[in-house]
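How it folds:
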Amino acid sequence: MKQHIKTRLELAVTLAISNVKIRYKNSVLGFVWSLLTPLIYLLIFVSIFSQRLGVDRYPLYALTGLIFWNFFNTTVSQVLNSVMASAGVLKSMNVPTLIFPVSAMVSSVINLLLSLIPFFILMFFFEFQPSLKSLQFIYILIVFTGFTLGFGLVLCAYNVYFRDVGMLWSTVTPALFYFTPIIWQLSDRMISPDSLMWKAVMYNPIHHYMTAFRTALYDNEWMTFEQLGIITSLGVGMLLIGYKVFTKLEKGFYSHY
């Protein structure tokens, strides 16, 4: 059993590394491209919102949100399409279906880890002050990856049956971006704590992860036990739900390729 799991993990990692190599083949900038998207958005938002929002060290605030939002958005999109993109392989070879969404996730993680090098250089430029508390982001990233994979697995499974899922996600993503405090700050001045909008944002799971990342990298503080409990339960819970939904619906995938 252990050998079987090890073989599958090795296959997932091999596919992920292959995907990364193919993505940046004949590319001059390579993985730096993964940082260009959040940087372009950063320049736009800094020029428009930095003075109006009155957030201290706004470039650092926005960047810590954009880099991890970009990871979430990219990973979910790749996991969502991973099975349908590999339909030809799955029809001709006896390969575990779960390998493909997992390899898509691993590929995104590798890409993120590579982009963190220039990301931290930029953060120093924007007055980032590292400390032992900053290392919390490693744990936050682990549980965030679990949440992202689980969420992606749910969408991936239903996308095999209904192609509308992929199109719906592309439509909803921009709205979710602005609905999440990534470039704006959740404060009494912007939204009243008694409003329906405030309550809706608090139920947005991405909000809790963005807040956790900022606690470690922007505020340079320890997470509260409440924060730790929320992001851990969301990550583990979503991963279990995603796995259960995917394995349950997997039986009917072949007839819908």
